[in-house]
Amino acid sequence: MDWKKNDVFQVQIEDMSDTGEGIGKTDGFTWFVKDAVIGDVVEAKVMKTKKSYGFARLMQVLEPSACRVTPRCPSARQCGGCQLQAMSYEEQLKFKENKVRNNLSRIGGLTEIPMEPVIGMDEPWRYRNKAQFPFGKDKDGRIITGFYAGRTHAIIEQEDCLLGVEENQPILDCIRGFMEEYHIAPYEEETHKGLVRHVLIRKGFTTGELMVCLVLNGDVKKLKAPEVLVERLVKLFALAPGLDVAGEAGKAPCAGDAVCAETAAVDKMPVPAAHMVSISCSINREKTNVIMGKEIVNLYGPGYITDYIGNVCYRISPLSFYQVNPVQTRKLYGTALEYAGLTGEETVWDLYCGIGTISLFLAQKAKKVYGVEIVPQAIDDARANAQLNHFENVEFFVGKAEEVLPEQYEKNRVYADTIVVDPPRKGCDSVCLDTIVKMAPKKVVYVSCDSATLARDVKYLGERGYEVKRVRAVDMFPWSGHVETVVLMSRK
Ligand code: SAH
Q: Which PROSITE patterns is this protein grouped with (predicted)?
């Protein structure tokens, strides 16, 4: 059949894409329908077609799926953030687990998959410790903030995203009020005029520490009275006098401190009330979609906040990478650590180590950990975090995993009992995998954010002497289509 734009048709939704669109078929032609849920029968309108597939807009749910729920967020459909708010959380978890299983069998060629139950969240809301809110104006010229609509830069006014922390809204209100009062214009993409582009807010979930960073298209002086804004923001989240701040910058007890490690004190520490620790500006004068500018001007506090994952503490600056779901991150790394099964005698390589988050987690139980990461600033953070936690058994290399590892192996015959990899979506380079095979560690622990490339790499290693022993999916991003996976492979 020849489909034309605006044709209306009915389709049963049978699957879900990685980006969360419902997938259905009519006569072998595949449709992607946003906001449709597996099990729905829907009426949809053709938006765009290619040779064998097309995109259609959901017009009406004719027969709702058993797993369909009413989205909790009023902006769920317009906002580009969530894709699965119309699907019950239980079904999402099943969907994600199945996706991993299917990829491992279809692409990975595995017949028996030792899957353990998916790790979901008990409370899948307000899990994000970081949000970046774009600022703009509505058609009446009022300053607004919220989120970009899917695929566009139109701002959906929404200060209280249900994935973000409750502190976001009062902070945004405060900044908006200040801007109105001092006649400070939000940035306008079309004209490249206006000052305030985005506001980044981060919260340390275990310390209560808050960070605010205003991304400006110009000099800080243009904020007119930054000291007034700072005073208001600090007052908004001031600690009650006398309250002890567990994670107060620089004084935090850390994993390497014997006392703390022995008593696992961090776990038992009460979480202090939210309080403002760091306020800064990031200067970004470029015409770009990249949110943060490279130059940071500090307005208040030490320039960073501190947070813990398990017993390990991390210093987080406005530009640092840090996992956005700390509760699930801990479970993900805990699973990786469990799969690694360390006794204290092992030498471990952590490839694609970022700011060393997994490396430091492993260092608690290993003799020696080597981390490799391509971004030099991330390695600066990794080294600082190792020092902060008094780890002396970690060493970091800047460079590509597929270059550093072969070089170290050829030159220094480096050894590994266990190799952990956590590559970006495209998976591991084959040179990297070949070197792993040559080094012949007993175990490979593969942490993955894309189960298709994971399956490809598992197959590659499977053909070279490694077999899959354990698999577990972890849901780091409830209401989105993404899923993380941890796989343990052992040398046969
Ligand atoms: N394990 C870290 C980060 C994982 S994200 C954490 O959990 O925090 C993947 C990381 O791989 C990113 O930090 C990215 O910069 C890095 N990376 C991408 N390509 C790489 C390559 N070829 N070699 C080494 N690191 C790479």
A: SAM_MT_RNA_M5U (PS51687), TRAM (PS50926), TRMA_1 (PS01230), TRMA_2 (PS01231)
Mean pLDDT of 91-110: 95
Q: Say how many C-beta atoms besides its own lie within 10 A of residue 218's C-beta.
A: 17
Q: Kindly report, residue by residue over 116-166, the tens digit of the pLDDT.
A: 999 999 999 999 999 999 999 999 999 999 998 877 888 989 889 999 999
pLDDT(248) > 90: no
Question: Is 161 tagged catalytic?
Answer: no
Confirm if 369 and 350 have CB atoms less than 8 A apart.
Answer: yes
Residues with a CB atom less than 6 Å from ligand 1: 323, 352-355, 357-358, 372-375, 378, 400-402, 422-424
**Predicted TM-score of the model (pTM):** 0.89
Instruction: Return the best residue to mutate from 337, 358, 373, 476 for the ligand 1 pocket (most ligand atoms within 8 A of CB).
Output: 373
pLDDT digits (tens, 9 = 90+) for 205-234: 999 999 999 999 999 999 999 999 999 999
Residue 421 Cα to ligand 1 middle (Å): 9
Instruction: Give the number of other CB atoms < 10 A from CB of residue 180.
Output: 11
- Alpha-carbon dihedral angle through residues 21, 24, 28, 30, given to the nearest 10 degrees: -20
Residue whose C-alpha is closest to residue 82's, from 187, 3, 158, 169:
158
Report the CATH number of the 92-122+325-491 domain: 3.40.50.150
The residue with tokens 């708010």 is 85
**Residue owning the nearest CA to atom 5 of ligand 1:** 424
Q: Cα of 356 to ligand 1 centre, how many Å?
A: 10
Containing H/E element for 475? Answer: none
> From 2.40.50.1070, 2.30.40.10, 3.40.50.300, 2.40.30.10, which CATH number describes the 130-316 domain?
2.40.50.1070
Return the number of other C-beta atoms located less than 10 Å from residue 28's C-beta: 6
Residue among 337, 374, 432 to mutate when testing ligand 1 (max atoms within 8 A of CB): 374
Q: What's residue 240's pLDDT?
A: 65
CATH 3.40.50.150 intervals, the chain: 92-122+325-491
